[in-house]
Fold this protein.
Amino acid sequence: MAMLKREELTSVPTVSGDLNALLGRGSEFEGKLTFEGTVRIDGKFTGTIVTNDVLVVGEGAKISAEITCGTVIVHGEITGNVRAKNAVELHHPAKMRGNIETPSLMIEKGVTFEGQCKMEGTEKGSGSSKPAPLPAPVAAVKS
């Protein structure tokens, strides 16, 4: 059995230093995950994830789930729909297959995204779910 030294345990990278749980590489879990704070998944997860806080999907992770979170930061693979109250970040080499619903979406170059995106909550005080009309095109005239 391999033993880790104390300094090796404390050098495990986290997002903001306050990681509440970690499903490490080689781990597999099936079911419903609910949590507070920040959770990082680097293994395989199948089921449902629900939180108002932060989910970090590590580069080696493979998730097949319906996800409802505050913020989702993805470096791995997700198959399933994602609903985020705050933001979704897709970082290279992420692969996302499913629909995203969030007020803020960031997709880095090199990410694969197959699905639809619905962004609500970005218009202040409109109260309407209809998209705002596009402004008329403006032509530049050089004199």
Summary: Residues 15-118 form one domain. The two ends are 78 Å apart (CA to CA). Confidence is low (pLDDT under 50) at residues 1-16, 122-129. Residues 6-10 form the longest helix (5 residues).
